[in-house]
């Protein structure tokens, strides 16, 4: 941590200072903030209670992002423009409210934002061994109730419970006596270090290391290369082995000799190179020059909602969060608002309203921070002509040249442009009065025309809703719908014979899933030429989600989900779009891009899609699983691991380990499973850890989902994610993977 302690910005935060906390026009109060010495916790003084100060704190690990300037709903509403360079917001990963703050000067704001943005990356560089070390010693300090830097037997028992491991009294006393070499009845100094080494010992790693450490008890570069080739099944060279030694080996003498110690080997296994996810798929690696409809596109339903569909808040924040997760298709449910200003909310419900122009500003600001590839704005238009014209004005004036307002090229296109062609651009999906050919002919349409409401709100009957009817469409709004013209779906034959490539239909959940089941091949052929959008049933008022996998199997590109809801379906979505640089675009397999395909996911036949694999996985161990009930001191998890496969129906499978009683710190299973995967290009694998419960449903601990084609062979760690898809610090699985071709 020397690099942190010497940093001027960090020194400023360690001293602390006053910031103005903003909640409303009338609630702006000075609060003292200070970075703690662990470099992971920010202390906050709140208010006085009967003469004493109340404090709270938050962890750096809980921060999702820091936004400089007035880029939150609260700061935009409750601060003046001249405060822009003094304002910043802390956005949390969980449901905790944003922390909107004003510094006394631009320089002070820069101190705070620079450090908070930089800290996670600095800590990540030394994450593995340091994180384990600091986490355990932080728990030890908490267990040392009288702060004498010594541990009694009672304090040690409390410490073990803190790190999620239950031991019986006899074992605890045996461990204590083994470390208490001074026979003083307490552990201190080197005795605590001995205790630490016993706790952090990874016997399963020792066994693997000893098998290949054939050079004076250490791994030479040649030994490491053998491990990489024979165990990890990598196409590695001597230079790769030497690079890993240079990167991971903490012992300078061993590094100079081209050797890797056991600590260096553990470090390697916990780096990106030792993870289950193939590093070659982390960055952009797919061809991005195919037509837009050849990709799966990460898509959100009712993006404006933060919670449920009936009374939850609507917010620009929901758009920002979706876009920062690489969502590339967002929904705008537009209605007439007060003072002539269009608003976005879930019509005929008690959800709050947000100004259309504020949403477009937020989208403009955050659309391309995570991915440079095009964003589709799916308009559900319920506005009067005047407010439609204002919507068109805002889209043009705020998005500027980034908005696609005419076809690319100088002649009528016959297929979609590619994500590469559309980098940094916005496409509007909505109603259009005429064909796209009008751009290349002298004919013109009426200034306004009537169109039928073929959108989600028209398909979902809500209390107080007026009967479905024709609506007037403003020419100004119609003209900016280019490649995504919304049309009613009649049949695949009708679509093939009468509709242009840029005309797309939206399918409610039940209709889409039925077509994917009964007419899968026709649906795939349809999607090989056109775009399809699917969305959750209107009855899902709790913002729950449907299974996206059958629709991806049918080639549907825009499978819209409720991003605000943590669930298995969102885990699958996150896993699907994990590769390819978090671009929000995944190239569909070739057999889903062929208009003459005979592939049917429900009735498999021989074809290029059939690439049968044997998937062997051994669940070896887990490390530092989180406690689920932090309020109960004696609450220790009883973990088990499930391995789930999603894909075509023949590939769907699930197996689980036995549970281990009272050990969330270092449980070990050494349990093996085998699966047969028929269509690997459509398969997703989900590893889930649960807390076993005899009386009720098991509780979720963590999960990790990734495409089958992105899995690496060999001994691998898996960093677990929480319900919202954020990595749980230090929590991991250790597995062995072997994938083999089957004839």
UniProtKB/TrEMBL annotation:
As recorded in UniProt, its EC number(s) are: 3.1.4.11
Q: Report which reactions are catalysed by this protein.
A: a 1,2-diacyl-sn-glycero-3-phospho-(1D-myo-inositol-4,5-bisphosphate) + H2O = 1D-myo-inositol 1,4,5-trisphosphate + a 1,2-diacyl-sn-glycerol + H(+)
Q: How does the entry describe its membrane topology?
A: Peripheral membrane protein
Q: What is its main location?
A: cytoplasm
Q: Which residues form the active site?
A: 301, 346
Residues annotated as domain C2: 600-722
- Which cofactors does the annotated protein need, by name? Ca(2+)
Record-given protein name: Phosphoinositide phospholipase C
Q: Which organism is it from?
A: Scleropages formosus (Asian bonytongue)
């Amino acid at each position: 941590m020397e690099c942190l302690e010497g940093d001027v910005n960090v020194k400023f935060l360690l001293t602390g200072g006053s910031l103005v906390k903003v909640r409303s026009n009338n609630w702006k109060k000075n609060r003292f903030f200070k970075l703690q010495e662990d470099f992971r916790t920010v202390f906050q003084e709140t208010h006085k209670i009967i003469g004493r100060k109340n404090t709270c704190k938050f962890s750096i690990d809980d921060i999702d992002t820091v936004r400089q300037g007035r880029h939150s709903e609260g700061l935009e509403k409750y601060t003046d423009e001249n405060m822009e360079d003094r304002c910043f917001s802390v956005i949390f990963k969980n449901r905790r409210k944003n922390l909107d703050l004003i510094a006394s000067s631009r320089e002070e704001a820069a101190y705070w934002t620079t450090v908070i943005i930089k800290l996670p990356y600095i800590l990540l560089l030394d994450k593995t061994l340091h994180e384990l070390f600091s986490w355990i010693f932080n728990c030890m300090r908490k267990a040392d109730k009288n702060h004498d830097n010594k541990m009694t037997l009672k304090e040690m028992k409390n410490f073990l419970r803190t790190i999620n491991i239950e031991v019986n009294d006899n074992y605890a006393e045996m461990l204590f006596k083994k470390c208490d070499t001074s026979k003083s009845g307490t552990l201190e100094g080197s005795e605590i270090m001995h205790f630490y080494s016993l706790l952090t010992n990874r016997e399963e790693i020792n066994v693997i290391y000893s098998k290949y450490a054939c050079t004076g008890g250490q791994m030479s570069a040649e030994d490491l290369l053998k491990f990489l080739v024979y165990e990890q099944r990598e196409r590695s060279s001597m230079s790769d082995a030497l690079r890993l030694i240079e990167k991971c080996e903490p012992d300078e003498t061993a590094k100079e000799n081209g050797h890797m110690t056991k600590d260096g080997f553990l470090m390697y296994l916990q780096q990106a190179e030792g993870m289950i996810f193939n590093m070659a798929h982390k960055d952009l690696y797919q061809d991005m020059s195919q037509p837009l409809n050849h990709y799966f596109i990460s898509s959100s339903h009712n993006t404006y909602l933060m919670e449920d569909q009936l009374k939850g808040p609507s917010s620009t924040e929901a758009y920002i969060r979706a876009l920062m997760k690489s969502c590339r298709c967002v929904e705008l449910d537009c209605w007439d608002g007060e003072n002539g200003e269009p608003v976005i909310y879930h019509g005929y419900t008690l959800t709050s309203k947000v100004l259309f122009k504020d949403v477009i500003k937020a989208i403009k600001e955050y659309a391309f921070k995570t991915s440079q590839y095009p964003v589709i704005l799916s308009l559900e238009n319920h506005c009067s002509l005047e407010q439609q014209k204002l919507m068109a004005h805002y889209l043009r004036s705020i998005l500027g040249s980034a908005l696609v307002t005419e076809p690319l090229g100088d002649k009528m296109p016959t297929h979609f442009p590619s994500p590469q062609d559309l980098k940094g651009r916005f496409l509007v999906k909505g109603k259009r009065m005429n064909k796209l050919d009008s751009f290349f002919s002298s004919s013109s349409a009426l200034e306004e025309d009537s169109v039928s409401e073929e959108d989600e709100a028209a398909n979902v009957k809500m209390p107080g809703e007026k009967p479905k009817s024709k609506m007037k469409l403003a020419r100004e709004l119609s003209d900016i719908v280019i490649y995504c013209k919304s049309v009613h779906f009649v049949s695949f034959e009708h679509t093939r014979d009468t509709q242009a490539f840029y005309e797309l239909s939206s399918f409610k959940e039940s209709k889409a899933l039925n077509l994917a089941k009964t007419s899968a091949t026709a649906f795939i052929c349809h999607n090989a030429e056109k775009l399809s959008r699917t969305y959750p049933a209107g009855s899902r008022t709790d913002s729950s989600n449907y299974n996206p996998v059958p629709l991806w199997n049918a080639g549907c590109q825009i499978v819209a989900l409720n991003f605000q809801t943590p669930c298995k379906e969102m885990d699958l979505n996150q896993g699907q779009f994990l590769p390819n640089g978090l671009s929000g675009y995944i190239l569909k397999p070739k057999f889903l891009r062929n208009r003459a395909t005979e592939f049917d996911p429900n009735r498999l036949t021989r074809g290029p899609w059939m690439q049968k694999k044997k998937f062997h996985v051994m669940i070896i161990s887990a490390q530092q699983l989180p406690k689920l009930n932090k309020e109960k001191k004696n609450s220790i998890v009883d973990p088990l691991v499930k391995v789930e496969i999603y894909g075509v129906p023949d590939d769907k499978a699930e197996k689980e380990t036995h549970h281990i009683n009272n050990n969330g710190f270092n449980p070990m299973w050494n349990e093996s499973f085998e699966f047969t995967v028929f269509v690997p290009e459509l398969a997703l694998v989900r590893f889930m850890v649960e807390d076993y419960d005899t009386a009720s449903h098991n509780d979720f601990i963590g999960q990790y989902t990734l495409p089958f084609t992105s899995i690496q062979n060999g001994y691998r760690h898996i960093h677990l994610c929480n319900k919202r898809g954020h990595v749980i610090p230090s929590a991991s699985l250790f597995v062995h993977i072997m994938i083999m071709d089957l004839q």
